[in-house]
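INFO  loader      accepted 1 record
INFO  loader      residues=220
INFO  predictor   begin
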Amino acid sequence: MPEAPPLLRLLAWLSPAFPVGSFSYSHGLESAVNDGLIGNRDELEDWLSGLLIAGSLWNDAVLSAHALRAAGKPAELARLAELAEALAGSAERHLETTSQGRAFLEAAHTWNGAGIDGLPDNCAYAVAFGAAAGNADIPADEAIAGLLQAAISNLVQAAIRLSVIGQSDAIRVVAKLENEIAATAHRAVQASLDDLGSATLLSEIAAMRHEVMHTRLFRS
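INFO  predictor   done
INFO  writer      dumping tokens
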């Protein structure tokens, strides 16, 4: 039988059914909604756009792109994993990235030769995914765009569960951000680690405020 193309593996790893537990996390979105910062489609779209351009999703894209190129180099991957942990701005952000990374590594071992041995157990999700994508020969632009698309889709689903938008508006948000996702992925593939950084202060504050919410649906 012919060998399955890398695209199939990419789609499997980024499927909502892949057991990384992403549905449990809102990336601080729940706190932002609770504080009245996000209450409609336009505000959600602006929030997500900021994360892509100059926030946590940008950092994840850069880290993942570097991990993809460092696939098969344990020492370099370990340094990237340590850097990714350090960039988590709050306890819940740290939990979010390491728990998903750990779950991804466990599930991805199903594929022989996924090339993820040697990564720390609590490896950040972006680094774990990038390393696996590199060993699967998934093109960098496609891998990083897929990672960002999955993240945006997950946050849009969180917004639906928080009653910010309905399904129709959710589709509009995903469609509107499509070009921005592609552009961010392309930029991240060419970026150096010196390009890491976040300017989305409200998102970071929202993530920290979520830690002290008494009633909540999500873990972050």
